[in-house]
């Protein structure tokens, strides 16, 4: 084929492709004929490439020698390649982009040449990368072309394309290449405001304003009194970043000279499951990028991830692969206090150097807040000691059961307690709290908790233990009363005694939720206790959940209480899950409901039959 013939064929192909685009826009409900025609044009494009290569190879060489002939061939091939009216990418054997034509740059929304030197599989949907690499290898080894459908994502755009791979030999290249022709069958454009900042001055100003707004929000959050008095700076800051800036946020802090994973915030729509736990349990010392940032004291940004192993590994392989990561940045927290890592999915706009600059400032602010928080906490050690006396540091192993709990302190010294402890017949548990605040209420709760522990060693009936604790509390004359529930475990049966406490919830294997009777009169009101007694059977796969007044009385911005109905709805969605997942789900739902505000202590204790 001569060059005029090739140019004429390219012009004709460009006209037909333009007509197909118009047909796709005009008849979106009838795409089948358009797709069939597009596939036919795809075959035509591949044939034209092959004929162009053959024509170049047969072209007469100049007398100047082989080198001049090769240069002329390369120049002609580049001209043909850039004029090609469909998206074409030239890949080497490893899948790295070596050439990209303007049609491809327009399709993907990236500047000309931006993707050269980057790994093309990073643009492919995570679930289909392995299949793409297999097709690429097969084409290189057998020389047989391959065509298949896949999804590409870049710069906030998502494309479903028909991808055709053809092996080719390029002049001056020692290895064989693969030409990838991509015809989009479905395109999802980025949402308004998701354009690259470089596209317009207005978008650039909008992005700068968003970064400034983040700094203001972060400063206000970290300077709140509660943030300084309680260990909530890190969780609150990471939740803010996850809500507005990233899909995953990971904070690793130096504790006792050792770097430990402290906070992991997953995407909002991501289920609480194995992947979240694997990210939480991964050793940050195994992360190349985290250790680099900690050692050098400066942040890094990976606009496109060429190495999925940078954040370490989990049971399913590289963490970043499992997380569906497309870009990542890491910045130091304070001065050697830790590392903050943000990850965005491959179908979102990647992080930029401007994002890195604002996150460097966020990391500095967060480090100052953590140090100030430590200073404030050291001045209230007596209050911390009282709070620690109403909750165990760890939960013991109860034969036949798996246990988990969560405790969030309120705005002042707390009075809620929970415990799991040995009794004469096996194991017991309790949850409750004095009605009141401050050190006196905390000391009364600690006394009740201790009384239940001590008396449980001699008594096998939780109701008898509750009655004796009531006598002791009345005799002390504190004038305070305590709402509490206690249970003793015997095989699959649990005997409950309630003194004015909220009823326990039993989550069954099929998702149904049944509440215990609850009730009774709080301890300390009268010399003769009035309790409510009940026996429950907790089968394998069922979970018994006890909770504090602070959970169901939490309110949203309209003043509505969280309530037991919402509690039951959340529990129903946790059927078959571990106790730790159950308490985290309740904690996360309550946080979302109340906008993160915590007035009274939040205590949740879950026991699951295993």
TrEMBL record:
<dbReference type="Pfam" id="PF01590">
    <property type="entry name" value="GAF"/>
</dbReference>
<protein>
    <submittedName>
        <fullName>PAS domain S-box-containing protein</fullName>
    </submittedName>
</protein>
<feature type="domain" description="PAS">
    <location>
        <begin position="73"/>
        <end position="143"/>
    </location>
</feature>
<dbReference type="InterPro" id="IPR000014">
    <property type="entry name" value="PAS"/>
</dbReference>
<dbReference type="InterPro" id="IPR029016">
    <property type="entry name" value="GAF-like_dom_sf"/>
</dbReference>
<dbReference type="InterPro" id="IPR003018">
    <property type="entry name" value="GAF"/>
</dbReference>
<dbReference type="InterPro" id="IPR035965">
    <property type="entry name" value="PAS-like_dom_sf"/>
</dbReference>
<dbReference type="Pfam" id="PF08448">
    <property type="entry name" value="PAS_4"/>
</dbReference>
<dbReference type="Pfam" id="PF07228">
    <property type="entry name" value="SpoIIE"/>
</dbReference>
<dbReference type="InterPro" id="IPR013656">
    <property type="entry name" value="PAS_4"/>
</dbReference>
<dbReference type="InterPro" id="IPR052016">
    <property type="entry name" value="Bact_Sigma-Reg"/>
</dbReference>
<dbReference type="InterPro" id="IPR001932">
    <property type="entry name" value="PPM-type_phosphatase-like_dom"/>
</dbReference>
<dbReference type="InterPro" id="IPR036457">
    <property type="entry name" value="PPM-type-like_dom_sf"/>
</dbReference>
<keyword id="KW-0378">Hydrolase</keyword>
């Amino acid at each position: 084929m001569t060059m005029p013939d090739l140019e004429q064929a390219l012009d004709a192909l460009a006209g037909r492709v333009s007509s197909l685009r118009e047909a796709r826009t005009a008849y979106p409900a009838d795409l089948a004929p358009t797709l069939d025609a597009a596939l036919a044009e795809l075959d035509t494009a591949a044939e034209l490439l092959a004929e162009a290569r053959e024509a170049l190879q047969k072209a007469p060489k100049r007398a100047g020698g082989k080198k001049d002939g090769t240069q002329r061939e390369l120049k002609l091939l580049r001209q043909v390649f850039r004029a090609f009216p469909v998206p074409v990418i030239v890949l080497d054997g490893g899948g790295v982009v070596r050439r990209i034509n303007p049609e491809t740059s327009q399709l993907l929304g990236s500047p000309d040449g931006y993707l050269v030197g980057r790994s093309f599989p990073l643009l492919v949907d995570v679930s289909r990368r392995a299949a793409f690499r297999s097709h690429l290898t097969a084409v290189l080894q057998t020389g047989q072309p391959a065509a298949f459908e896949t999804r590409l994502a870049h710069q906030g755009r998502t494309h479903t394309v028909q991808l055709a791979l053809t092996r080719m030999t390029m002049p001056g290249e020692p290895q064989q290449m693969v030409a990838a022709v991509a015809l989009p069958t479905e395109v999802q454009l980025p949402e308004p405001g998701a354009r690259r900042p470089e596209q317009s001055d207005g978008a650039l100003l909008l992005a700068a304003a968003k970064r400034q707004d983040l700094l203001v929000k972060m400063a206000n959050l970290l300077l709140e009194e509660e943030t300084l008095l309680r260990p909530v700076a890190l969780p609150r800051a990471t939740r803010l970043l996850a809500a507005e800036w990233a899909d995953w946020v990971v904070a690793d802090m130096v504790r006792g000279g050792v770097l430990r994973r402290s906070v992991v915030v997953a995407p909002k729509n991501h289920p609480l499951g194995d992947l979240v736990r694997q990210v939480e349990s991964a050793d940050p010392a195994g992360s190349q990028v985290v250790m680099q940032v900690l050692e050098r004291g400066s942040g890094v940004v990976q606009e496109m991830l060429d190495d999925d192993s940078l954040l370490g590994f989990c049971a399913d392989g590289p963490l970043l692969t499992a997380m569906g990561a497309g870009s990542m940045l890491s910045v130091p927290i304070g001065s050697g206090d830790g590392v903050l890592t943000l990850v965005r999915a491959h179908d979102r706009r990647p992080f930029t150097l401007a994002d890195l600059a604002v996150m460097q400032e966020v990391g500095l602010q967060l480090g100052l807040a953590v140090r100030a928080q430590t200073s404030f906490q050291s001045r209230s050690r007596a209050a911390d000691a009282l709070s620690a006396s109403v909750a165990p540091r760890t939960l013991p192993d109860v034969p036949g059961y798996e246990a988990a709990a969560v405790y969030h302190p309120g705005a002042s010294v707390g009075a809620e307690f929970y415990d799991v402890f040995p009794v004469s017949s096996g194991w017991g548990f309790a949850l409750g709290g004095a009605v009141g605040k401050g050190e006196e209420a905390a000391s009364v709760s600690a006394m009740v908790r201790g009384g239940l522990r001590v008396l449980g060693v001699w008594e096998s009936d939780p109701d008898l233990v509750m009655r004796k604790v009531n006598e002791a509390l009345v005799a002390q004359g504190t004038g305070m009363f305590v709402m509490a529930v206690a249970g003793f475990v015997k095989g699959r049966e649990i005997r409950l005694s309630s003194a004015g406490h909220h009823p326990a919830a039993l989550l069954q294997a099929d998702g149904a939720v049944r509440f215990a009777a609850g009730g009774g009169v709080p301890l300390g009101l009268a010399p003769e206790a009035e309790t409510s007694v009940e026996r429950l059977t907790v089968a394998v796969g069922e979970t018994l959940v006890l909770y504090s007044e602070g959970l169901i009385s939490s309110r949203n911005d309209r003043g509505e209480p969280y309530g037991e109905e919402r509690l039951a709805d959340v529990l129903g969605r946790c059927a078959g899950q571990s106790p730790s997942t159950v308490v985290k789900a309740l904690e996360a739902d309550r946080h979302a409901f109340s906008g993160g505000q915590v007035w009274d202590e939040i205590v949740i204790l879950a026991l699951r039959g295993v």
